[in-house]
Structure formats: structure tokens, C-alpha cells
């Protein structure tokens, strides 16, 4: 690793194994980081061990060793723990799921060998196969525990990582459709990445998945099954490249199907570091390269409405934006302070992405202390808790020593 300042790191947190990539500024690309210097092993078992004597935590192969040989307490199924709010018993202590995630992510970051790595992180992107609201909450709390700023901590699923990985490769690998076969032993999922070049920005999306199961006992039949599946999913369309990932694919048995994949000089790539590299590339794109500013990825987690408020700013009436459409719901949060002027109700303005029609949504503040006009200051926080639901929290801040805060807090969850 030749970077020690402003690190941009991507971590693929998998069910069984995890990987880490860092962005090499000289080569201008993400690079996989081996578990040990000089080795070609990049996958870390997704497990954690509480070392009783040392009173600390270690991860991966080291965790398995200390649990097996030194009586350490092994924590497995970290992926499953991430989907829960229930505390976990670790060596007689109760730990929250987000604490377990923080210990594991911290262990992954130590693989870089950089001292005081938290101060040197420009961006950390964590990707997982899928994300629900509980996983997002636990990951965000883990990021806070690691003292990584919200703006420097990105969360995404594998589909979005795939987008960033593909779109930061050479143009000839994605200027037409891209096919993606994901293997899970004998189960195969196919997705096609397409783009609408007529839109501005250019819209990129992954079409709905198509799935099948291959024969798991006879390699010749397995090859025939995959050949048929590939023929049906690819059809006669032109593809820039075919990407294959996961456990279960092997060119030893895929003799006939591989020839089909390479048909019409299609480029075919196989590897298991694509998500970690894609996560790393996402951080580099946001903070450094900005090569994809003319493209927009239409993820299934996208917020499709702008949200703001009409208020007086610097003496002039203006629209004040709070949430910008086109971002994933788990990235959408906003906070502002305002002074009420002749009202005891907040009015939010919502409009669908690309449309001019506006919708006005009111939020009443029952029990708001009676004060002279323009002497009530409020803190307003918005945070999405799912793709469709936004939580609003309003706190009465009072107005200096003359009108102290009442301590009142109003919460409301709305669908714009």
C-alpha cells in the first residue's frame, strides 16, 4: 500500500468471508489488500474473537486460531447479527449488534497497517449483499463508534457496488449492455445492466433478476443447464462484457457454456473481488475522480422526491432544500435551525424528481410554548428510515436566556 493519508477504502462484508480494497491514486484504481503481506489471499473469514487474556478482539484467520487454540470466544454469523437489534452474549458480556460490527470493521481496517487509521480515512464504503433498515441502522452506529464522519461513511448493496465497479472500467466493457451471472453453488442469478443514453443525466439500471438451479451431481449436465440458461438470458442482444462472480462456477465443467459466453467476441470476466473494488471505486468517485457525474444509477433504494421548506433566508423569501432526490434512502438526512414567524406549524414542500408539481405537508407542534413572534427557535432533523418513510424530529431550542428551551420534542413519520 502506497497511501497513508486520505485513504479511500471499500469493504465487502460477506456472510462467510469479507474483503478490503484501497484506492491507489498512482494507478488510479482500487487494489485488493492481501490478508498477509506478500500473500495472494484476499478473503478474510467473517468472524470475530474476544481474546480473554488480552481483553481485545481479533478477526478472520487470527480469530479462528485464538478460538481454537487459546480459548477465545468466537463470534460467527456477523452478517446475521447485523440484521438484528437483539444483544449478543460475548464472553459473559452483552454487546449490541452495532458494537460487533464496529469491532469487525475496525479489525478489517487494521489490515492496512496504517497507524491511527481513523484519522487518515477520507472515505469508508461498506457493501453487503442486501440492506434492510436494521442493517443500515447498525452500520451507521458502527461508523459513529469508529468516529468516522457521516459524510465519509458510505453504505451500499452489492447491486450498487456492481454499478460502480463496471462504470469505472474501460469504456469498451460497458458501452453496451453488461451481463452479470452470480453463482451460489448450484443456484445462478442473472441480471442485465442497461442504460438510457437519451436521458440527461444518462440513467443506468439493473433489470429484474432471472434465476435457475443447475444440476449439482453431474458436471456434463451442469454445463448443459448453464448453457441453456445463458442462451435464454443473453438472447441475440449485443453485450460489451459478461461478469461472473460467486462460488460454484468453474471453467473445468463449463466447457460448452464458456464458448457461448465468448460468442461475438464478448469479454468475459470472473472474480470474487468485484464488490469490494466497486465499493472502493464509489468512494473515489464521490471524493476524487467524479467521472460519472453525467450518469445516475437507478437503485431500488432511491429516494424519488425532493423535500424542502419555503422560508425567509437572509431577509428574502426562498426555497430551502433539505433532501435531494436521487440518493439512497439511507444517505438521506438533513438538519437545520429556524425561527418561527407568525405560525405554530411547519410546512414541508415535496416534489417528485423531474416534476414541477409541489405537495405541501404540514406538521403541527402541539404544546408549543406561547412566546412573542420570532422568539421560538427550533432544531429540525429529517432522516429516512426506509425508502418511503421519513422521520422528522423537531426540538424546541427556546430563544436565549429570555425564553429558555422547554425541552419539548415532536416526532412524526411521514410518506411524502
Task: Present the secondary structure layout.
Layout: E1 7-13, E2 17-24, E3 29-32, E4 44-45, E5 48-51, E6 56-59, H1 60-69, E7 73-75, H2 78-82, E8 88-90, E9 93-95, H3 97-110, H4 117-120, E10 121-128, H5 133-145, E11 153-157, H6 158-167, E12 177-184, E13 187-196, E14 202-206, E15 210-213, H7 219-234, E16 239-247, H8 255-261, E17 267-270, H9 274-289, E18 295-297, E19 305-313, E20 316-323, E21 333-339, E22 345-352, E23 359-364, E24 377-384, E25 390-398, E26 409-414
Parallel strand pairs: 1-10, 10-11, 12-16, 14-18, 16-17
Antiparallel strand pairs: 1-2, 2-3, 2-4, 5-6, 5-7, 8-9, 12-13, 13-14, 13-15, 19-20, 19-22, 21-24, 22-23, 24-25, 25-26
Amino acid at each position: 500500500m502506497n497511501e497513508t493519508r486520505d485513504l479511500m477504502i471499500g469493504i465487502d462484508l460477506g456472510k462467510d468471508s469479507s474483503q478490503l480494497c484501497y484506492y491507489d491514486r498512482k494507478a488510479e484504481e482500487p487494489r485488493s489488500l492481501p490478508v498477509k503481506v506478500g500473500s495472494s489471499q484476499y478473503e478474510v473469514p467473517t468472524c470475530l474473537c474476544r481474546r480473554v487474556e488480552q481483553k481485545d478482539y481479533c478477526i478472520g484467520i487470527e480469530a479462528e486460531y485464538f478460538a481454537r487454540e487459546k480459548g477465545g470466544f468466537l463470534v460467527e454469523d456477523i452478517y446475521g447479527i447485523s440484521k438484528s437489534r437483539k444483544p449478543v452474549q460475548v464472553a459473559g458480556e452483552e454487546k449490541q449488534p452495532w458494537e460487533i460490527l464496529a469491532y469487525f470493521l475496525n479489525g478489517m481496517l487494521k489490515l492496512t497497517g496504517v497507524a491511527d487509521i481513523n484519522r487518515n480515512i477520507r472515505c469508508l464504503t461498506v457493501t453487503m449483499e442486501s440492506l434492510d433498515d436494521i442493517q443500515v441502522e447498525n452500520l451507521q452506529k458502527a461508523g459513529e463508534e469508529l468516529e468516522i464522519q457521516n459524510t465519509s461513511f458510505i453504505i451500499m448493496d452489492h447491486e450498487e457496488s456492481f454499478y460502480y465497479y463496471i462504470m469505472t472500467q474501460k469504456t469498451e466493457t460497458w458501452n453496451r449492455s453488461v451481463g452479470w451471472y452470480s453463482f451460489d453453488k448450484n443456484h445462478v442469478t442473472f441480471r442485465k445492466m442497461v442504460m438510457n443514453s437519451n436521458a440527461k443525466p444518462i440513467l443506468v439500471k439493473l433489470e429484474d433478476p432471472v434465476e435457475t438451479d443447475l444440476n449439482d451431481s453431474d458436471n456434463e449436465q451442469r454445463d448443459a443447464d448453464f448453457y441453456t440458461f445463458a442462451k435464454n438470458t443473453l438472447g441475440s442482444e449485443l453485450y460489451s462484457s459478461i461478469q461472473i462472480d460467486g462460488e460454484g462456477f468453474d471453467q473445468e465443467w463449463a466447457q460448452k457454456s464458456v464458448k457461448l459466453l465468448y460468442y461475438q467476441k464478448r469479454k468475459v470476466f470472473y472474480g470474487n473481488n468485484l464488490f469490494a473494488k466497486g465499493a472502493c471505486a464509489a468512494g473515489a468517485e464521490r471524493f476524487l475522480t467524479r467521472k460519472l457525474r453525467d450518469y445516475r444509477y437507478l437503485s431500488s433504494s432511491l429516494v424519488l422526491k425532493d423535500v424542502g421548506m419555503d422560508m425567509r433566508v437572509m431577509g428574502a423569501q426562498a426555497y430551502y432544500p433539505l433532501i435531494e432526490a436521487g440518493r439512497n434512502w439511507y444517505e438521506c438526512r438533513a438538519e437545520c435551525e429556524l425561527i418561527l414567524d407568525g405560525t405554530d406549524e411547519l410546512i414541508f414542500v415535496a416534489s417528485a424528481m423531474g416534476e414541477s408539481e409541489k405537495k405541501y405537508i404540514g406538521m403541527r407542534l402541539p404544546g408549543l410554548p406561547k412566546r412573542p413572534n420570532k422568539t421560538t427557535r427550533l432544531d429540525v432533523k429529517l432522516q429516512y428510515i426506509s425508502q418511503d418513510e421519513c422521520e422528522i424530529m423537531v426540538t424546541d431550542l427556546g430563544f436565549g436566556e429570555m425564553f429558555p428551551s422547554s425541552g419539548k420534542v415532536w416526532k412524526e413519520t411521514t410518506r411524502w
